[in-house]
């Protein structure tokens, strides 16, 4: 996504119109998907959309789990709960990418029915109790160092440039890509 969609998108847009680069990139590319499926009804929901009651329009990690795309590891997946009263958030792990992915949108096709489609469960790729505890610990208490993403051996992960981009404060990100002043200029409007 970063090299093939995001960076070309930024280079093709007037920087004055870029307020949220990733969200605008995803929206742009999914609008192209919608156009290519003009003969179909497609409902697109984005991970940042909220309902009037300030709850998310959809639960991205739950949706990925139900779709069989990634396993959503939660506290209930651990037999010997070591956290006591602490709030523990769940996290999705993909069998190929580990934690090196993001769920940015959900596409619904309400007029499509596939009666023979079978639901495939997600692959439980974090095998042991100890690894599940380690995953939830790293995600909940050390998420900024990104180590939870490598809880399993991954086939592909973010490039160093992508990691540097997402680790930087938002106002400094475009400069890292050689696109000077974009978000700072937007802040003045």
TrEMBL record:
Catalyzed reactions per annotation:
apo-[alkylcobalamin reductase] + an R-cob(III)alamin + glutathione = cob(I)alamin-[alkylcobalamin reductase] + an S-substituted glutathione + H(+); 2 cob(II)alamin-[cyanocobalamin reductase] + 2 hydrogen cyanide + NADP(+) = 2 cyanocob(III)alamin + 2 apo-[cyanocobalamin reductase] + NADPH + H(+); apo-[alkylcobalamin reductase] + methylcob(III)alamin + glutathione = S-methyl glutathione + cob(I)alamin-[alkylcobalamin reductase] + H(+); apo-[alkylcobalamin reductase] + adenosylcob(III)alamin + glutathione = S-adenosylglutathione + cob(I)alamin-[alkylcobalamin reductase] + H(+)
Instruction: Output the InterPro entries linked to this UniProt entry.
Output: MMACHC (IPR032037)
Entry's Gene Ontology cellular component terms? cytoplasm
Q: What is its EC number?
A: 1.16.1.6, 2.5.1.151
Q: Which UniProt keywords apply?
A: Cobalamin, Cobalt, Cytoplasm, FAD, Flavoprotein, FMN, NADP, Oxidoreductase
Q: Which Pfam family, any one, appears in the UniProt record? A: MMACHC
User: Biological process GO annotation list?
Assistant: cobalamin metabolic process
Localization in the cell: Cytoplasm
Q: Which cofactor does it need?
A: FAD; FMN
Instruction: Tell me where on the tree of life, at the top rank, the source sits.
Output: Eukaryota
Among the GO molecular function terms of this UniProt record, one is:
FAD binding
The UniProt family comment states: Belongs to the MMACHC family.
Name recorded for this polypeptide? Cyanocobalamin reductase / alkylcobalamin dealkylase
Question: Per the UniProt entry, what species is this protein from, by scientific name?
Answer: Eublepharis macularius
